[in-house]
């Protein structure tokens, strides 16, 4: 299905941007760069804007969400905006008792631990989300109107990562309870994953239809899974999420070629499951800093565009050290058909914003 004619991809604004070209496997003259978690914590203008507003409230206030999305694009001249929201926003919108606790992350009013807990959760019809997505659609529309030729990336959390919060009740280290449920009660687990896929898939599709030029699925905690567990208990639900956007296409400015809206898939510490993460339906795979970029490219068969993987710890190192690292990541990325520079995970909150701006300048000069 073609995205609407007013969509930035279909209107020819972002279709040939460096980001979308790279995501489509066509290496642009300069390497595009953006940073996971570029919107938010590390920017003083963000902290100022957020005073007195809770995180989820900020996500659901279109003027705020849009302004926060634009801040890092203006400041750093990155090649993409990432929509300011959170992976738990669609849960909140269907009535799940979740809040984001400062300095901690998403916390549930009640953890989903038993078969009865799962049954109660999945009784909530995912289709009701469609009528609650207004603030998201509004925020995306406002944002892309300001971004012009800079593409916006929409995103969602993958079912496993969301389930890790739902089952544990909040952030956890190894997601033990979630990983136990998949073995002790595979039926409840499957029901939980299927329901979560319907919720998060709708959230992602709404962002793309409203104007996002690419979609990124964050399975941040999938690195805690064995390849067998990933294949059996997680991949089918992630594939289902991507079905919500895989039918969306746009016409290239040549007027004849139709292309799919690109999809990126990323998780932390997922070096052992990179090909599986591509196979659920991604065009681009994000690689975290624990895997050498050229090795990740090799594991993916050498024909998949990649995104990554500056070590976030390097952002606080002396410039000469950081510069050498960025140059090395860039060199390693040449083994792929195309490479989008990014971090191996999110921007640490204490990062000096001037360093990010300097990294963008460096990457554009390479
Ligand atoms: O107090 C604050 O200011 C809240 C901090 C914060 C922010 C700015 C949270 C809480 N979420 C966000 C925004 C956010 N979350 C964005 C948009 C901004 C951007 O990327 O520039 C995105 C893409 C996310 C996605 C997200 N939320 C992920 C996947 C990406 C990743 O970093 O792995 C995950 C795992 C979450 C959960 C979450 N939300 C917030 C925190 C601190 C966490 C992680 C908690 C944990 O360690 O388990």
UniProtKB/TrEMBL annotation:
<dbReference type="InterPro" id="IPR006361">
    <property type="entry name" value="Uroporphyrinogen_deCO2ase_HemE"/>
</dbReference>
<keyword id="KW-0456">Lyase</keyword>
<feature type="binding site">
    <location>
        <position position="220"/>
    </location>
    <ligand>
        <name>substrate</name>
    </ligand>
</feature>
<dbReference type="GO" id="GO:0006782">
    <property type="term" value="P:protoporphyrinogen IX biosynthetic process"/>
</dbReference>
<feature type="binding site">
    <location>
        <begin position="37"/>
        <end position="41"/>
    </location>
    <ligand>
        <name>substrate</name>
    </ligand>
</feature>
<feature type="binding site">
    <location>
        <position position="86"/>
    </location>
    <ligand>
        <name>substrate</name>
    </ligand>
</feature>
<dbReference type="GO" id="GO:0005829">
    <property type="term" value="C:cytosol"/>
</dbReference>
<feature type="domain" description="Uroporphyrinogen decarboxylase (URO-D)">
    <location>
        <begin position="32"/>
        <end position="41"/>
    </location>
</feature>
<protein>
    <recommendedName>
        <fullName>Uroporphyrinogen decarboxylase</fullName>
        <ecNumber>4.1.1.37</ecNumber>
    </recommendedName>
</protein>
<dbReference type="InterPro" id="IPR038071">
    <property type="entry name" value="UROD/MetE-like_sf"/>
</dbReference>
<comment type="subunit">
    <text>Homodimer.</text>
</comment>
<dbReference type="InterPro" id="IPR000257">
    <property type="entry name" value="Uroporphyrinogen_deCOase"/>
</dbReference>
<feature type="site" description="Transition state stabilizer">
    <location>
        <position position="86"/>
    </location>
</feature>
<keyword id="KW-0627">Porphyrin biosynthesis</keyword>
<feature type="binding site">
    <location>
        <position position="165"/>
    </location>
    <ligand>
        <name>substrate</name>
    </ligand>
</feature>
<comment type="function">
    <text>Catalyzes the decarboxylation of four acetate groups of uroporphyrinogen-III to yield coproporphyrinogen-III.</text>
</comment>
<feature type="domain" description="Uroporphyrinogen decarboxylase (URO-D)">
    <location>
        <begin position="153"/>
        <end position="169"/>
    </location>
</feature>
<dbReference type="Pfam" id="PF01208">
    <property type="entry name" value="URO-D"/>
</dbReference>
<comment type="pathway">
    <text>Porphyrin-containing compound metabolism; protoporphyrin-IX biosynthesis; coproporphyrinogen-III from 5-aminolevulinate: step 4/4.</text>
</comment>
<comment type="similarity">
    <text>Belongs to the uroporphyrinogen decarboxylase family.</text>
</comment>
<keyword id="KW-0963">Cytoplasm</keyword>
<feature type="binding site">
    <location>
        <position position="345"/>
    </location>
    <ligand>
        <name>substrate</name>
    </ligand>
</feature>
<dbReference type="GO" id="GO:0004853">
    <property type="term" value="F:uroporphyrinogen decarboxylase activity"/>
</dbReference>
<keyword id="KW-0210">Decarboxylase</keyword>
